[in-house]
Automatic annotation (TrEMBL):
Entry-linked InterPro entries: SusD-like_N, SusD_RagB_dom, TPR-like_helical_dom_sf
Keyword terms, alphabetized: Cell outer membrane, Membrane, Signal
Main location: membrane
Record has Membrane as a keyword: yes
Record flagged with keyword Signal: yes
Family: Belongs to the SusD family.
Organism: Phocaeicola plebeius
Residues annotated as domain RagB/SusD: 322-417
Pfam families: SusD-like_3, SusD_RagB
Protein name: RagB/SusD family nutrient uptake outer membrane protein
Gene3D superfamilies xrefs: 1.25.40.390
GO cellular component assignments: cell outer membrane
Subcellular location: Cell outer membrane
Domain SusD-like N-terminal: 19-219
Amino acid sequence: MKRIISYVFAGLIMTGCNDFLDLKPIDFPTEETFYNDVKGLEGAVIGVYDELQSSSQYGGNFMTLMEIRGDNVMDDNSGAGGGVRYQIEVFTETPANTNLSDAWSSLYKTIYRCNLVLHNVESVKMTEDKYNEIVGQVSFVRALSYFNLVRLWGKVPLVTEPQTVEDARNNKREEVSVIYNQIIEDLNVAKSLPSEWPDEEKGRVTSYAACALLAKVYLYMENYDKVYEELTPIVSVIKEGKELSLVPTPETFPNNLKTSKDIIFAVQYLKGGIGESVHQNNRYRNNDNGNVISLPQSEFESDNDNRKFLLAPTGSGERPGKFDTPATNNETSSDFPVLRCADVMLMYAEALNELSQSPTQGALDALNAVRNNAGLPDKELSDFVSKESLRKAIHKERRLELALECDRWFDIVRTNIFNEVFVGVDSYRVLYPIPQTEIENVNDKSDWQNEGYIIG
């Protein structure tokens, strides 16, 4: 994706009070001048993508909230970083945990940037194609941000316009169903995006990404008819193997995320100390401050599973093979996959299975496509005595295929196996506590904390 130098992002920062002076620099963009032409809006779109790279999101913090929280990765160092990450591991986090406040703030910063673009785009003259490109990209990112918010915290404020500080102080948490409706609306807008971009624009959101994320949203809503509807065209494209395709895992990871046909959407990074790289310590490294892969090797069917060595225990300070991208000056350009073809095939298999009364060949074919891609032989219908047994196989395949990709924790919650995986842990922990810093900043604090947690 084209990069724009850092001064562009200054126009995305919420301006403070300026009661005393109203001086606007003539050679530096301000919020009033930044969005008045197509070039400014295109720069703002880059700023929207930029925040996804943050160490508070896919650059690091999501690995704590979505992987360490699950059962594929554990943190065994109670003292590192003041213990805030270890609290996530052992379900003792409080509303004061900084992992929570940092992620919350970064997600709403992303939404704020999206809202600024959407608020200003109507006043700028441009072609219909350019309008659809700008609106579609930021609508997707806003939808992704709200999808992460609602899965982490449940009810959250729904903000679709730029706000002043006083506006924000009057925010209330919206019902989950209403937030999902907004996510669906945004993704339907994003479906108007092109299916592919020119090589110099690779990495931007496509219509395939919008449909795949929309299908995942419907999966969480258990609307399997809609999952099937959204994924059927993408599955056909994957089977053709031209624009999208399943790619054997060792060829997708660790170094080829930027070019792999398996990648539908990824958060992209560059290295070189220009603010576009990800620091090694911000992404998973084994035994780095206590991180340990806890996915049992026995979960893999055989040594022929080419994912096994990518997720094998490593030496202290080493990355697992899945994200072992070479680093320069302790910086790596390793992208973070958000949506992959393998994920699409497993969602498709799950939807087909849930829509039937017993195992079907269609669901099994989608599952086998992922298995074959990992170097494993086909399963037969006779291997499954019931719909439930095929469901378990699909969910297990998700665990192995999508490990370290920020899906496992959410899969544990949505498939109702939390109490099975985490015996004795209070069920209210399926949602995180609302950060205390957010509660302190609103005028009406009623209904601002999730069940089980205490407002400080």
